[in-house]
From TrEMBL:
One Pfam family from the record: Hydrolase
Any one Gene Ontology molecular-function term assigned to this protein's record: phosphatase activity
Gene3D superfamilies, per the entry: HAD superfamily/HAD-like, Putative phosphatase, domain 2
Protein's recorded name: Haloacid dehalogenase, type II
Record's keyword annotation contains Flavoprotein: no
Length: 238
């Protein structure tokens, strides 16, 4: 069946969240530590979302989750020495920075090529609609998507099956007509489970605890070099 729609995870997959977040941290913290802190904070966010889903809790505003996990990070032994640098003002800036991100260099060209081929292109990501609107504008991607679907809007968190089912129902497409593109194993696994085609995009900032050697044969495609050639891959899947 021909592919009609391509759905994208957003942060990490399309957007370089790491640069903006590490740059907003106090400059007195060494750059390697800032990078490690950001990566660990991001993973804690994923773990917290997974725990919420395991309990059957509804989606939480991502700003609230980011603030709670930031506070938790600063209680961990490795980071306690930096805790006093994170004043309330600094914490507020850190949370706000998630709303201002830049796209990876290969993102915009890949999205435009897909649109030129006639595919519908959607954001399908956890988070809030406000977050997606803000980062779409800051990343210069406002003309690249047909619609932004957030877990807040859908009412459930990926990788819950009902999240994908609800999104597909809204765009009136069958699973086999759609491709899920993400830099997160849990996301493409969830899409695969509902019958969607799957493309994994390797980004060094995400899935830091995954065994990537094992993942390479798990999905319809695994792109190590980012989104270059993504339109060709999607065309072949159809």
């Amino acid at each position: 069946m021909p592919i009609k729609a391509v759905l994208f995870d957003y942060m990490g997959t399309c957007l370089d969240w790491h640069t903006g977040i590490t740059n907003i941290f106090p400059s007195t913290i060494p750059q390697p530590d800032r990078s490690d802190f950001a990566l660990e904070w991001r993973q804690l966010y994923f773990d917290t979302n997974a725990a919420r889903q395991g309990r059957g809790d509804p989606p939480e505003d991502i700003d609230i989750t980011h603030r709670m996990t930031l506070d938790e990070m600063l209680t961990r032994p490795r980071w306690q020495a930096h805790a006093e640098l994170f004043t309330e003002e600094v914490k507020t800036k850190c949370i706000a920075q998630w709303h201002h991100q830049t796209a990876w260099d290969d993102t915009r060209p890949a999205l435009l090529k897909l649109r030129q081929r006639g595919y519908e292109v959607f954001v399908h990501a956890n988070g809030t609609t406000r977050l997606q609107l803000d980062i779409t504008r800051s990343a210069g991607l406002s003309d690249c998507f047909d619609m932004l679907f957030s877990s807040e809007l859908i009412g459930t968190i990926k990788p819950a099956r009902e999240n994908y089912d609800k999104c597909l129902g809204l765009i009136k497409r069958k699973p086999e007509e759609c491709v899920m593109v993400a830099a997160h194993g849990y996301d493409v696994r969830g899409a695969k489970n509902v019958g969607m085609k799957t493309v994994y995009i390797y980004r060094w900032t995400d899935d830091i605890n995954e065994d990537h050697a094992k993942m390479k044969g798990e999905f319809d495609a695994y792109l190590e070099g980012g989104m270059q050639g993504l339109d060709e891959v999607v065309a072949e899947l159809g």
